[in-house]
Specification:
Blueprint lengths: L1 H10 L1 H18 L1 H14 L6 E4 L5 H10 L15 H7 L5 E8 L2 E11 L3 E8 L8 H15 L3 E7 L3 H6 L6 E6 L4 E6 L6
Parallel strand pairs: 4-5
Antiparallel strand pairs: 1-2, 2-3, 3-4, 5-7, 6-7
Helix pairs in contact: 1-2, 3-6
């Protein structure tokens, strides 16, 4: 199923839009209330001073655009959760099954992370941290928040990672929660982040 969805996303854009539209409606009806109930608790449980972690809203669109376009092209080569132009970013806020979150240093957006939910109780995660703020533990807290949201909703937490993305591969070297599920085309891995507390 994951291979098929990845193929559709990258090769059949019109069909992907239809799938996201239908999935968004179903997710909204089945899971949205539960998501909003658990969010405050997760954000309270995982923090890192002096930064603020919260859900992004449409008024953050310009900050998100700025954050993405401040990074070197090589830094976002493998980070393509959606289009990077302002129009597409604003549209993404209307996707009911796509949770956009940010990390702030006062008023500055310095990190972006997300969960893309599917109604089969699977979700995909991803993150981007401003190069100037790496090595401060922000990524660890982002991971904790993403994983906990998925697990508290009883969703499987997945990601696709390119073997060529040395930064991400290095970041996950010691991630005890990550399990490789399968090899995908073009040197990509499908991985799952598992709740080791339940084992």
């Amino acid at each position: 199923m994951e291979k098929l969805l990845l193929y559709i996303k990258h090769h059949l854009g019109f069909l992907w839009k239809a799938i996201e539209w239908g999935n968004g409606i179903l997710f909204d009806r089945l899971y949205k209330q539960r998501l909003f109930r658990i969010l405050p608790g997760v954000f309270m449980d995982f923090t890192l001073e002096p930064f603020t972690f919260r859900r992004l809203v449409i008024s953050d669109a310009e900050r998100l655009y700025t954050l993405i376009h401040m990074q070197n092209a090589t830094e976002i080569e493998f980070f393509r959760p959606h289009g990077m132009d302002m129009k597409t970013i604003k549209k993404q806020f209307n996707n009911r099954a796509f949770l956009m979150m940010g990390v702030f240093d006062r008023d500055d957006l310095i990190g972006y992370f997300f969960l893309r939910f599917f109604c089969n109780r699977k979700c995909f995660v991803g993150r981007l941290i401003d190069t100037r703020y790496r090595g401060k533990g922000i990524g660890i807290v982002m991971n904790q928040i993403m994983y906990e949201i998925a697990w508290r909703m009883s969703f499987r937490c997945l990601s696709t990672i390119s073997r060529n993305n040395k930064l991400v591969m290095h970041a996950h070297e010691k991630n005890s929660k990550m399990k490789v599920l399968k090899e995908l085309r073009n040197d990509f891995l499908l991985v799952e982040f598992v709740n080791t507390k339940d084992e």
